[in-house]
Amino acid sequence: MSTTRIFVARLAGCGVFDRSGDRLGRVRDVVVVYRRAAPPRVVGMVVEIPGRRRVFLSIGRIVSIGAGQVITTGLISVRRFEQRASEVRVVAELLGQRITLNDGSGESTVEDVAIEQVGPAEWEVGQVFVRRPRTGPAPFGRGATAFVKWADIRQQDTGGRSQSAAQLIQSMADLPAADLASALLDLPEQRMLEVANELTDDRLADVLEEMPEEAGVKILARLGDDRAADVLEVMQPDDAADLIGKLPDERSEALLDLMESEEADDVRMLLAYDPDTAGGMMTPDPIIVSADATVAEGLALIRRHELAPALGAAVCVTQPPYEPPTGRFLGIVHFQRMLRYPPHERLGSILDTQTDPVRANTSAAEVSRILATYNLVQIPVVDENHRLVGVVTVDDVLDRLLPDDWRSSDADDEALPRVTTDTSAVSTVPQRVPSRRSPRGRAR
């Protein structure tokens, strides 16, 4: 091995490559097992491969660790990682843990863990980087740090106290919201709730939009009403409605009363529709413009970086008012069509006359068929008076079509091949034991 001591917090996020230099994935955690009279032994790493699948990489298949990368033999089982009872994940479970120093100097918090090579394909926990409690009066001061050996610390029974998630959040700071949601779902439930509680409102809102509703409800239940309302306000109204609809009626009303009236009204409107209809799936914040708006103005609206791609695929043209429910819906203009016309062209003159809107009570199955038949990314939704009330985007439909546990489903694991950079052969290495297991798009 090229490096004998590696700090795990710095290792998280590093690329995993085969000997030819082809990237296989990224390190997300290090797995250790405790030993009675010796430091914990490293048994492998949790690696995220394409498709956001987290798999186990045995330490015996690692050729070298160093220079911000991990080199492997090139063979990785794509069976989804499932943690055994005897295993501990360093990033997910050790960082932020309170420990007691055996020298009698008191408590500290684990900020990083160093693993050291002790033999061929053998690694163990060496030193632990800890931070002592703040002792000075400075409000933003931090306690002293120290490197201690594993034998010089004693882990505490937290007794129900929350474990600091600051280090874990920092190690996941570069993850897209969907990947962070998957990472949280892989954590033990209590740890997932601790980490979610320490995320900012915006970041937590993005994560909740990517999570199964059951997990989102558990996280909201952990938050106070004021914080939960703040997070729901930031979420897309359709995602917020899905979560609020799963809460007890009493708390749902309490949260809606605490939300800003505009956001609460959008959510209440969505809750009035059957979930399996266009009204129940739609996003009530499409880009809405007048017929006199120009191509340049339309492109400027969809160019905003914070706009979800599906919402930016087209603009809706209506009569005033331009807030759902709008005036009479006139038509839709897809962004590709806008690219074919000069900037001064009026959008009202280039409407797509072949895309008919659907009614709010149209079934989800019918909406899916329309999107698939005409290769659409979004379709407008109107009420009985032909007023625009929202749009259904392809991601809304996928959320309905996929099973509730699609983020963690292993139904197709047995059919997946082993990942190898040699495409001329399939690996026959024995597999690991199976028991291991966006902001609003409204335009005014």
Count of alpha and pi helical runs = 16
| Strand segment count | 21
Which range does the strand content fall in? 15-25%
* Major sheet attributes: 13 strands, mixed
Ordered list of secondary-structure elements with their pairings:
Layout: E1 5-7, H1 8-11, E2 15-17, E3 23-33, E4 41-49, E5 53-58, E6 62-66, E7 69-72, E8 75-76, E9 87-89, H2 90-94, E10 98-101, E11 106-119, E12 122-131, E13 145-149, E14 153-155, H3 166-171, H4 177-185, H5 189-198, H6 201-210, H7 213-222, H8 225-234, H9 237-244, H10 249-258, H11 261-271, H12 278-281, E15 288-289, H13 295-302, E16 314-318, E17 329-334, H14 335-339, E18 358-359, H15 364-373, E19 378-382, E20 388-393, H16 394-401, E21 419-420
Parallel strand pairs: 2-7, 15-16, 18-19
Antiparallel strand pairs: 1-11, 2-3, 3-4, 3-9, 4-5, 4-12, 6-7, 8-21, 10-11, 10-14, 11-12, 12-13, 16-17, 19-20
Helix pairs in contact: 4-6, 6-8, 8-10, 9-11
Polypeptide structure, described:
There is one protein chain. The chain is an alpha+beta fold. 29% of the residues lie in helices and 25% in strands. The chain is built from 16 helices and 21 strands. Strands 1, 2, 3, 4, 5, 6, 7, 9, 10, 11, 12, 13 and 14 form a 13-stranded mixed β-sheet that branches. It has a 3-stranded mixed β-sheet with strand order 15-16-17. α6 crosses α8 (225-234), α8 packs across α10 (249-258) and α9 packs across α11. The longest helix is centred in the middle third of the chain and has 11 residues, at 261-271. The chain is elongated and about 75 Å long.
